């Protein structure tokens, strides 16, 4: 039971880590998008500056795409981890139910064995007398 708890704790920790990463990436993506928008809206007279900013915008747009892909990938990993967590939880519940059933069956068999031993010991004592 403690191994399962440790495993669930590990999964929850990883889920929390992924959620924090996704939030940070979304904030970064919003900042990059905002910066890109500001650069696009700003009109500069100097063509060299314009070209430099256009390169920066292109670079930032590429970064946005990379961040979007990373966000989608980690969102998918998070969904997979949640699904695995749920499956493991259900499996654990099933195993716990089976374990409890086996304990009850074991107790019942021990009681039957004890009863049979008492009967045999009584019959042996009657034969000896």
Automatic annotation (TrEMBL):
Family (UniProt): Belongs to the BCAP29/BCAP31 family.
Compartment(s): Endoplasmic reticulum membrane
GO biological process: endoplasmic reticulum to Golgi vesicle-mediated transport; intracellular protein transport; protein localization to endoplasmic reticulum exit site
Principal subcellular localisation of the protein: endoplasmic reticulum
Presence of keyword Transmembrane helix: yes
InterPro entries per UniProt: BAP29/BAP31
Superkingdom: Eukaryota
Membrane topology per record: Multi-pass membrane protein
Leader sequence residues: none
Function: May play a role in anterograde transport of membrane proteins from the endoplasmic reticulum to the Golgi.
Species in which this protein is naturally found: Triticum turgidum subsp. durum (Durum wheat)
UniProt keywords, alphabetically: Apoptosis, Coiled coil, Endoplasmic reticulum, ER-Golgi transport, Membrane, Protein transport, Transmembrane, Transmembrane helix, Transport
Gene3D superfamilies: 1.20.5.110
PANTHER family recorded: BCR-ASSOCIATED PROTEIN, BAP, ENDOPLASMIC RETICULUM TRANSMEMBRANE PROTEIN
This protein's GO CC annotations: endoplasmic reticulum membrane
Coiled coil regions, renumbered to chain: 15-126
Protein name: Endoplasmic reticulum transmembrane protein
